[in-house]
Amino acid sequence: MLLRTLFASLLASSAMAVAISTPAYADKSDRAREAIAAAEAKIHTAETLGTTTGSPRQTAEARAALAMAKENLAAGHKSDSIASAIRASALADTAIGEAQRSKDEAVASASSAAREDVAAAQDQAAAAQQQAAEANARAEAAQQSAATSAADAASARNAAAVAAAQTPQVETTVTTQQPASRSTRTVTRRTTTTTRPVTPPSVTTTTTKVTPQPY
């Protein structure tokens, strides 16, 4: 669409050039009509590009100059009509240039924003990958630590079992002497003295097997 409107503007410029360069003996009425047609084409192109909102002043002035060119032609002021038509075309060209510059700036801004968005997304993806790599490294380290701890515990249990199997038993004999169960008593009665025997202390021998605990 933009290419078609620009092509129409070029055609209008060509028509204007032809009208201006027409030999002096040509009818000024024809030249004025050609200039008016060229101005109308340029104004239409400008309005198609959105100059009524982007460049409203130039577009309005171009429309006013075009109307003046038509009035001058109708009044028989052919030279004034041609001049007004040329002014209308110039104003339309200015509006077209501003519209094109605005569009180019908008495209450049959108492209820059898109590049920034892509760069930000790439940075975020790289940061996420880095975090994932660090998390995987921590998980692997934890697994290795757990495996090492399990191996150490198994080694300790095996060492304790071997030590228990190789530790000799120590037999200890303890002899305990108990006091006599009864003591000697002498009972004196009128004429008879009775002496009871004394029970000797008992001796108890205990044998205990002690298994030293491994350190």
Question: What topology does this entry show?
Answer:
Blueprint: H1 2-20, H2 28-48, H3 51-54, H4 56-74, H5 78-166, E1 170-177, E2 186-188, E3 193-195, E4 203-210
Antiparallel strand pairs: 1-4, 2-3
Helix pairs in contact: 1-2, 2-4, 2-5, 4-5
Task: Write out key terms for the chains shown.
215 residues; mainly alpha; two-stranded antiparallel ribbon; 4 strands; 71% helix; 10% strand
Spatial order of strands in the largest sheet: 1-4
Computed CA radius of gyration, to the nearest angstrom: 61 Å
Question: Which spans have pLDDT < 50 for at least 5 consecutive residues?
Answer: 18-22
Q: Oligomer, anyone? A: single chain
Q: How far is it from the N-terminal to the C-terminal residue, by CA?
A: 94 Å
Helix content range? over 70%
Q: What string gives the helices and strands in order?
A: HHHHHEEEE
Shape: rod-shaped
| SSE-based structural type | mainly alpha
Could you tell me the number of beta strands?
4
Mean pLDDT: 77
What does this protein look like?
The protein has helices at 2-20, 28-48, 51-54, 56-74, 78-166; strands spanning 170-177, 186-188, 193-195, 203-210. Helix 1 (2-20) runs antiparallel to helix 2. Strand 2 (186-188) and strand 3 (193-195) form a beta hairpin. It has a two-stranded antiparallel ribbon with strand order 1-4. A two-stranded antiparallel ribbon has the order 2-3. It contains five helices and four strands; from the N terminus they run H-H-H-H-H-E-E-E-E.
